Amino acid sequence: MKKILLTIATLGSIFADEKAELILDIEKSLMASCFHGTVYEHGNQEMEKQIASFVNAGRSKEYVINFFTNKYGERILAMPEAEGFNIFAWLAPIIIFALGGLMMFIYFKNPTPKIEKISNQNDDSIKFSDEIEQELKELD
Q1: Which pLDDT tens digit goes with each residue over 78-108?
Q2: In whole angstroms, what is the distance from residue 79 CA to residue 119 CA?
């Protein structure tokens, strides 16, 4: 008889721990109705009571999340589903970071060419140097 009572107490404890973990998981998955953080962080009493009553009634996490999503819209989700515009919101920072890295790589791979100083002004390697000299003399 003692073994049966001990087993029942142990199973009750396990189920209570599972329910507490499920409640915590759901609270972290949903934003508070005032949208200033998750239910877990904000401590929204009304939503906490609703979540606990759903879990104690045997409802699944998906059911509870769907209930609040239908009530408040997708903005109640702490992590919105990756579909439609939300995909862009998830990928945009990654794409911007990759493009910035590529631009930096290209910039540092091809440094700006160094300008050589002209040491001898009478150097014949300058194109049209004779014409330039003649025009400068005419201007004086």
Answers
A1: 776 767 777 787 788 999 999 999 999 988 8
A2: 66
